[in-house]
Amino acid sequence: MSIHSPPALACRDVTVRYGDVTALSDVSVAFEPGLIHAVVGQNGAGKTTFARVASGLVQPTNGAVEIAGQVIRTGHVRESRAAGVELVHQSFALPPSFTVAEAMEFGAPGRGRLYSRKGLAEKWRAHLAGLDIQVDFSKRIRDLPVETQQSIEIARALITDARVLILDEPTAVLSPVGIEMLFARVRRLKQRGVTVILILHKIREVLGIADTITVLRGGRRVEGPVLAADISADHLATLIVGDAVKGHKPGDRDALVGNGGAHADVPSGHQRYASLAPALVLSAVSTVPDSEGAPLDKVSLSIRPGEIVGIAGVEGNGQKTLVRAIADLAGLSAGTIALGGEDITRKSLAARRAAGLRIIPFERNIEGLSLTSSLWENWSARELLQGPLLRLVNPARIRALCDGSLKKWGVHYHTSSQRAGSLSGGNAQKVILAREIDDDAKLIIAAQPTRGLDIGATAFVWESLRAARDKGAAILLISSDLDELFDISDRVVVMLSGRVAGAFAAPYDIQSVGAAMTGAGAAATGTQR
Amino acid sequence: MNDVIIAILRSGTPLVYVTLAGVIAQRAGVWNLGLEGLMIIGACATILGIMLTQSYAAAIVIAIAMCVIASVLSWFVIEKLKANPIIAGLGLTGLGIGGTALAVESIFGSQATVTAPFGAPKLGAAFGAYGVLSIFVAAMPFVVFALWLLLKRSRFGLQLSASGEHPFAARGVGIQPVRMRLIALSIGGILCAIGGAELATGSLQFFAQGMTAGRGFMAFAAVIFGAAHPIGATAAALFFAIAGALGIRAQLMFGDKVPHDLLQALPYLATVFGVWLSGKLGGAKTAGSFGELKDQ
Q1: Residue B296: inside a domain
Q2: Are residues A418 and A282 in the same domain?
Q3: Fewest CB within a 10 Å sphere: which of A166, A177, A503, B275?
Q4: What is the pLDDT of residue A234?
Q5: What pLDDT was estimated at residue A272?
Q6: A87–B166: do the CB atoms touch at under 8 Å?
Q7: Residue B191 sits in a domain of what CATH number?
Q8: Which of B149, B173, B294 to mutate to test the interface with A (most CBs of A within 10 A)?
Q9: Which portions of this protein are annotated as coiled-coil regions (chain A) (predicted)?
Q10: How far apart are CA B182 and CA A249, in angstroms?
Q11: Number of folded domains in chain B?
């Protein structure tokens, strides 16, 4: 590529404000054609907003976007697509009930004719074959594994012969093997002349694939694009993190930016409690298949007090069902569950909670909090639900208790009667921690507890879980972020298709954990199945 | 036998048209509970149009115009004023029932029914016993087929479904879900006008206050029962019509033994059964979340 050809994509002084929040401020950046560019930064740095401005989904408050030297009208997806920019979203954006062929067709440019199902499959067969994607065209999107969904989404983005392909956090849902396959695909696209912009937040991945690196922090461009060869992992980590985690453990810092390799040994708090009976024992638990996810298949799992057990696995392999089974929200077809030595298989969720079960749920804003209710109502829910239905409550007393607790947990808020929905993600999660982590907690389930949080809040959640562990609680951590799991888990268990596909102890080997996640060579790594 | 089929087609045709309006709205992501209101506006406007212009064609045009205006109004309330679609739909129903009663009273004084000098054009003697049916009955299968092509075999249909099921995905490829819903509700307005016209002038030729008697809600139930599929929902609407016709039959035959109120309730019981069944079979799943237009 000649140095004089215009940039494939350029932004000039782009600012995006949502009300009082400035998501991007004065970002100017130009990407050379034909290369793989990485845009990195922590959650909340403005990466996704940047991608959406470039693709026309978000209208910037001011600033201009140029594609291959042409200034385009901002805020118009059709214009951006016509100019050759396509975006693949973080949480995939294909209607779940569509078949593969329909998913290709619905966003195709030009005017569509009436089609037959067969004709539609014929029409797109060559396109998918050209991208090495083998899939049954009559399958619905919701029935496909996440890797395939992502491939379909990439194929959908390439129907227009895109010259710039932006992938927003494409690795977040993939196993290490899936990431390698994705990167191989990205390199093939580069050979075809496509400029690829990858939005990433893990340094290891960035250095493995990118030609140039651009760093965003707090909505500003702090570096780049610089050639990947010219920047060290350490410097990159400093650029991404800023001052956010001064004073935290060095192992945490590496895990936060995905710069892990060999992890520092986890300080084991569980020795003290090793003689106690297990806090949670699942014996050959199977669940009744339902519409909400892969059923469990003879899952056995035991967690001692003072131990953090991490659950690894590609999303949709039974992690949600595992939580539902422990919370009495999924029907068991076989097996028993014991909490603190007591068989709770037939007990209700309320009884289980009374026995010390605590849950930090997957969906912070749906299951975790009632966004339209006040903070004190959210905070007091756990205790109030334990009491009798007609018990009188004293709001003034609860509010005072709530204030004390929220202050202790460092929640930034104005008044305990403000709505939970008015808090930032990190503060909202702290409210849930304040409710769920108490002295009576025997088993704390932390399901994706740091998803979407910035680095400071993530480190806080980790510290809180460790502190609870050191006080003798058993912790079941479910995460799709292997760096997180490796950093704070005493053991890691891999789930695949509703089964336990492997168990690992620190120090962890990302290769063998990754292999277990995809079912490749579980035997080769010598782990039990 | 012929008279049973004729009875089913007479009561079923208005229901099918209104059901199709519900299907297209549902696929665009709007739980349209305003069908009842639109249908009665269509019925009233047709009769008043005939009285005013003495022309059936002009009356239909007036009815369509009124229903489309009312539909666009509900679109405005939902999309621009951000009202909950279910509440907006119920409001539209209230507007239709109350507004038509008010219109009739203010024009004709305190008359409960308004009779027009003539009704919809009939098929004629060439169709034998079926000649008494209106042209809308004959057109109905073609309209169903056309809508099936539009919704299930065209890119427009895919874009409409995407707008309803996953608005963010639709926006991501440059579709404007808000505009798709305007189109969907406008087409629905046309279909409701025809449904109302068939109800008031297909075999009758008068308008009575509250004459839709819950048919709009039954149509909505057919949409859910039929999982918002144009043919499935049509079948559901016809199933309700058959239940109704059998109810009338049963009244004639066993009226002295079974309380006839119970037999009259048959189509409504069938509706409840149908919705229960669709929930059981998971048919309503495609319909998306409860009246919320989710976007990212």
Answers
A1: no
A2: yes
A3: A503
A4: 85
A5: 64
A6: no
A7: 1.10.3470
A8: B173
A9: none
A10: 56
A11: 1
Helix (H, G, I), strand (E, B) or coil at B149: helix
Most B-contacting residue of A59, A90, A114, A169 (CB-CB within 10 A), to test interface: A114
Contacts of A108 in chain B (CB under 8 A): 155
Q: How many Å apart are CA B13 and CA B230, to the nearest integer?
A: 14
- Nearest-5° Cα angle at A414, A409 to A420: 70
pLDDT digits (tens, 9 = 90+) for B89-125: 999 999 999 999 999 999 888 777 899 999 999 998 8
Measure Cα distances from B111 to A433, B103, B107, B213 in Å. Answer: 66, 11, 9, 18
N-to-C CA span, chain B: 55
Is the Cα torsion angle A484, A486, A488, A491 positive or negative in sign? Answer: positive
Residue A98 near chain B (CB below 8 Å): yes
What ipTM, to 2 d.p.? 0.84
Model confidence band, residue B47 (pLDDT cutoffs 50, 70, 90): very high
Instruction: Pick the last residue of a domain from A141, A160, A179.
Output: A160
Give CA–CA dist B17/B190, Å, rounded.
9
Task: Give the residue among A94, A91, A17 at the shortest CA–CA distance from A49.
Answer: A17
SS3 B76: helix
- Cβ contact B161–A105 (<8 Å): no
Cβ distance of B169 and A94 shorter than 8 Å: yes
Parent domain of B243: 2-287
What is the percentage of chain A residues whose pLDDT exceeds 90?
43
Contact B26, B220 (CB under 8 A): no
pLDDT band at A261 (very low <50, low <70, confident <90, very high): low
Bridge partners (DSSP) of residue A493 are A311, A503
pLDDT at B284: 44
- Could you give the CA distance from residue A116 to residue A104 in angstroms, rounded to a whole number? 14
- Judging contacts by C-beta atoms under 8 Å, the chain B residues touching residue A93 are 166, 168-169, 172
| Mean residue pLDDT across chain B | 89
Largest Cα span, chain A: 77
Cα–Cα distance for residue pair A459/A410, rounded to 1 Å: 13
Q: Quick check: B162 and A106 CB within 8 A? A: yes
Q: Are residues A103 and A61 in the same domain?
A: no
Residue B99: predicted pLDDT: 95
- Maximum mean pLDDT: which of A118-132, A258-272, B186-200: B186-200
Identify the pLDDT of residue A260.
Answer: 63
A96 to chain B, any CB pair closer than 8 A? The answer is yes
Domain-terminating residue out of A116, A132, A160: A160
pLDDT digits (tens, 9 = 90+) for A313-359: 988 899 999 999 999 999 999 999 999 888 999 999 989 998 999 99
The residue among A178 and B76 whose pLDDT is bigger is B76
Q: Which string of DSSP letters, residue by residue, matches A93-136?
A: -S-TTSBHHHHHHTT-SSPPPP--HHHHHHHHHHHHHHTT----
- Residue A457 and residue A490 in one domain: yes
User: What is the 8-class DSSP label of residue B79?
Assistant: I
A360 and A405 assigned to the same domain: yes
Same-domain status, A156 and A195: no
- In a domain, residue B293? The reply is no
Q: How many domains does chain A have?
A: 3
Q: Which two tokens stand for residue A98?
A: 């569509």
Are A73 and A190 found together in one domain?
Answer: yes
Q: At what angle do helices B2-27 and B230-254 cross, to 10 degrees?
A: 140
How far, in Å, CA of A285 to CA of A344, rounded?
13
- pLDDT of res. B289: 44
What are the CA-CA distances from residue A9 to residues A34, A37, A168 (Å)? 11, 11, 16
Residue B52 has pLDDT above 70, yes or no: yes
- Sorting pLDDT into bands at 50, 70 and 90, what band is A511? confident
Which pLDDT value is given to residue B277?
A: 81
Same domain, A39 and A166: yes
Q: Quick one: average pLDDT of B3-8?
A: 90
